[in-house]
Amino acid sequence: MQKDVSNYISSSCLEYIRSENMSTIDLENERLSLRPVADRLLVLLKTRGPQTAADLGQALGTTGENARQQLMKLAGDGLVETEAVARGVGRPSQFWRLTDRGHARFPDTHAELTVSLLRNLRDVLGKDALDRVISAREDETRAAYSAALAKIDGLEARIAALVAIRSREGYMAEWRPAEDGDGWFLIENHCPICAAATACQDFCRAELSIFQEMLGPKCSIERTEHIVKGARRCAYRIRAR
Predict the structure, then answer these.
(1) Residue 224, C-beta contacts closer than 8 angstroms, at least 6 positions apart
(2) The pTM is what?
(3) Domain definitions of the chain by residue range
(4) What are 56-72's pLDDT values in tens digits?
């Protein structure tokens, strides 16, 4: 399932770049219709956060009761759980969300090995050596992204292209205009290097710096949600200057 999830999201975002008339969410819905129900539910909860069975049923084109039955099976496997959320007057609504085990079904590339190597590198060779390794990775990423974006003009087009690159790398990325009309949001629903980023947050610092360089000096970028700090996703607010 792990490769399927990553491939699904990657192809969705690539098709976005090829089509001017379909949004990221349109493509997500199209692809979801072709997947097994359990996988579709996990992807929806990963990309949209906690949802009611009724909302999930609507997204799947079925009833809330059918979605609830599938969710109960996933709960039996320890992949999802419920939480009660008050929504005004009346009984709290039951929302479904991924458990830690459910999140783990999405790839965190070679997590244990990566963390061990980072720890050993720092302990044996020192923090300066670790900083040099991170800087080398940053330079490599910057060069690859620059080449991919070299012929793309316009801030929104570059955001869309950057999202496609990040999705190919497993970040389950999407973008959308801000609801208040002031800029855009770049959202990463998954972090395939979460264990490494948690062990060494310089990876996240480098990422933000690269995003700014790739989108250029005529915009500002602010991280508004951060997986490493407990959020369910990483989100970036982008505003034109």
Answers:
(1) 185, 235, 236, 237
(2) 0.61
(3) 2-103, 111-240
(4) 999 988 999 999 999 99
